[in-house]
Amino acid sequence: MANHLNLTIDRSSPVPLYHQVVQGIEAAIHGGVLPPGSRLDNEIDLAAQLNLSRPTMRKAMDELVRSGLLVRKRGVGTQVVSSQVRRPLELSSLFDDLSNNGSKPTTEVLSFSHDEADAATRAALQLPAGAKVYHFTRLRKVGGKPLALMENWVRDDITTIDEALLGSQGLYGILRNGGVNFRLASQRIGAMIANDYQATMLETTPGSALVTMERTAVDDTGRQVETGHHVYRADSYSFEMTLVQR
């Protein structure tokens, strides 16, 4: 493995030995020599191949794990973390963002109903008593791997929505085709730990970190169009934003 990665240790260098290992593995990951999901030899074997002490190798691996490049999995060993989906913080849908980046997202509709809105949904969408909404949950995958578990409520006076449509298109695309011109959204990003259901659906472990997003979108006529709560695997997903001095 060490030879395959072209890792060399310069004992005359002022750079600490463990950090030379970190730099070498980082270069292998970023250069594609170690693609996402690759397994590394165990620390004892790597230390022997590089003629380093086990504590030195352990320190290097710990730093790579802390930096998010490697992950330790029980029964599997140490693996390169799958590359993250980095999403710009703007009014767009996950489906559109993934498609525009060259990914091929797939959607599994887990539940779907068209019922009278409860009080919380009526308040979020500013609907009158008795109004109905579409309520559905979807599992979004990229490359066959689960990325997001999404629950949404959509007012039903815009366009007809069904399970087949949601399974083949992104929600914002469906609504745009129905005449919606999105204008702004109220959004909150947070974090939580996965419960048993979320962990099962996202193929991760209970207690693992998830990124959360709550959003209510408004169109150019001032209508609250949809509201939703999404959770994403934190090891595969992040938001990007630019901060401006005002």
Q: Could you provide a short overview of the structure?
A:
The chain has helices at residues 17-30, 43-50, 54-66, 94-100, 119-125, 163-168, 171-177, 196-201, and strands at residues 39-40, 70-73, 77-80, 85-88, 105-116, 132-142, 145-155, 182-193, 209-219, 224-233, 237-240. The protein is α+β, with helices and mostly antiparallel strands.
What does this 3D model show about the protein?
- The chain is of the alpha+beta class.
- It has helices at residues 17-30, 43-50, 54-66, 94-100, 119-125, 163-168, 171-177, 196-201; strands at 39-40, 70-73, 77-80, 85-88, 105-116, 132-142, 145-155, 182-193, 209-219, 224-233, 237-240.
- The strands form three sheets. It has a six-stranded antiparallel beta sheet with strand order 5-6-7-10-9-8. The chain has a three-stranded antiparallel beta sheet with strand order 1-3-2. It has a two-stranded parallel ribbon with strand order 4-11.
- The relative contact order is 0.12.
- The mean pLDDT is 85.
- This is DNA-binding GntR family transcriptional regulator.
- GO terms for molecular function: DNA binding.
Strand segment tally: 11
State the helical fraction.
25-40%
Question: What is the overall pLDDT average?
Answer: 85
Shape: elongated
Low-pLDDT parts are: none
Radius of gyration: 23 Å
The percent range for strand residues is: 25-35%
Count of individual helical segments: 8
Order of helices and strands: HEHHEEEHEHEEHHEHEEE
Distance between the termini: 51 Å
Strand order of the largest sheet: 5-6-7-10-9-8
The biggest sheet amounts to: 6 strands, antiparallel
Secondary-structure-based class equals alpha+beta
